[in-house]
Amino acid sequence: MPSPICKFCTSKSLRVSKFRMGDMSHLLLFQFPVRCRSCRQRTYLSFHVALRLPHRSKHSTPVKSVS
Ligand SMILES: [Zn+2]
């Protein structure tokens, strides 16, 4: 399956966006909000495509174990 691209700038740097109440109508159509890391535009992709994208990396730094 090809990587999803941004329809605004054709970048492949997409990630899952924060879900809002306004997204509910899209959810009923099996679409999930995603955001482009390049142009910051928000768009929708079908569930199975969007859920393969990286999520917000809040805990990206590895936890150092104190020994
Ligand atoms: Zn874009």
How is this structure best described in words?
- With 67 residues, the protein is an alpha+beta fold.
- The protein has one domain.
- 12% of the residues lie in helices and 21% in strands.
- The structure holds zinc ion.
- The site of zinc ion (ZN) has 8 residues, from loops.
Quick overview of this protein structure:
Helix content is 12%, strand content 21%. It is of the alpha+beta class and 67 residues long. Strand 2 (31-36) and strand 3 (42-46) form a beta hairpin.
Strand-helix topology:
Blueprint: E1 14-16, H1 24-27, E2 31-36, E3 42-46, H2 47-50
Zinc ion is lined by residues 6, 8-9, 11, 36, 38-39, 41.
List keywords for this structure.
binds zinc ion; 3-stranded antiparallel sheet; 12% helix; globular; 67 residues; alpha+beta
The domain tally reads: 1
Rg, Å, rounded: 14 Å
Strand percentage lies at 15-25%
How would you sum up the global shape?
A: globular
Bound ligand species: zinc ion
Number of strands: 3
Secondary structure tally, helices: 2
Overall residue-averaged pLDDT value: 88
Portion of residues in helices? Answer: 10-25%
Report the span from N to C terminus: 43 Å
SSE order, as H and E?
Answer: EHEEH
Q: How are the strands ordered across the major sheet?
A: 1-2-3
Instruction: Summarize the main sheet.
Output: 3 strands, antiparallel
Q: What structural class should be given to the helix and strand makeup? A: alpha+beta
Would you identify the regions where 5 or more consecutive residues have pLDDT less than 50?
Answer: none
